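Course assignment 3, question 2. Fill in each field.
Student: A.L.
Task: Predict the tertiary structure for the chain below.
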Amino acid sequence: MAILVTGGAGYIGAHVVRALERAGLESVVVDDLSSGHREFVRPEVPFLDLNVLHAKQLVEQLSEHHIEAVIHLAAFKYAGVSVEQPVHTWRQNVGGTLSLLRAMEHLDVDAIVFSSSAAVYGTTDVPLVTEDTPTRPESPYGESKLVGEWMIRDQGVATGLRHTSLRYFNVVGSGEPDLYDSSPHNLFPLVIRALSQGHRPRIFGDDYATADGTCVRDYVHVADLAEAHVVAVRRLLEGRELEPVYNLGSGDGVSVRQIMQAVADATGVDFEPEVLGRRPGDPARIVASGERATRDLDWRMRHTLDDMVASAWQARPADPTD
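Answer field:
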């Protein structure tokens, strides 16, 4: 029996596959490599180059692998770009989840851990986001993730599908020296890429109502996040009752200026970031509580900010354009 990991060749997905391996669980990866990397998946792990939109092909190719549960990470994950490409975002994220649920029903797979997002909350005015904070997504990406949660919930009511959805903010660092974040939009790879190319990293706005004037965000280490996915899927397979959603939050935010200083300390590169104007829609502070996940999923921040930065720097690709 094996765990299907959709998007398992991506930055987070590949870490989840490695965490499953450490836990003694077999995995099968489905990924169309639109943003993932084939080399992130070890040769001994069954790999299907396939988009989850294709339910019939999913059923055909997965039928021989005896899948017992799914960790669903495959998605178009760029919130800002989703505003410019809403149809593409909805097709990939909502259509992909719908297709996967159809395939799971056909294959009699009755457990799923869904990779959701803190983007479902939108801009909040609370000091600490909890699972009870109202959801007001402000991008097609955030909307598509919330709809994915609803679809999975409804399938649970109709068929008894066991499920939980994990919401998280900024995932950073590296748990393996050959796995790195190649996103063209995330803060850590942007800073690392800038330094590797001899440029000054950028801060967008230093006049917010925060301690140092820069935005405060919730950062979690990718290895900690991967472990939470493994615990969640094991809990479902053991028949334990889980909440429909969990925040994987730090409970304690870090400012962009603090990130910059941590990068300078970890790399030994002394730099002064370039400060530009605010970006529209950037709230001053977004931090989430992880108390519910700590209670049920053994969620903990096992890595410090220095760990996050140092591991990301050590795992950076040799080609700074990657």
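Instructor remarks: The chain is about 40% helix and 15% strand. Residues 110 and 161 are 5 Å apart (CA to CA).
Grade: pending
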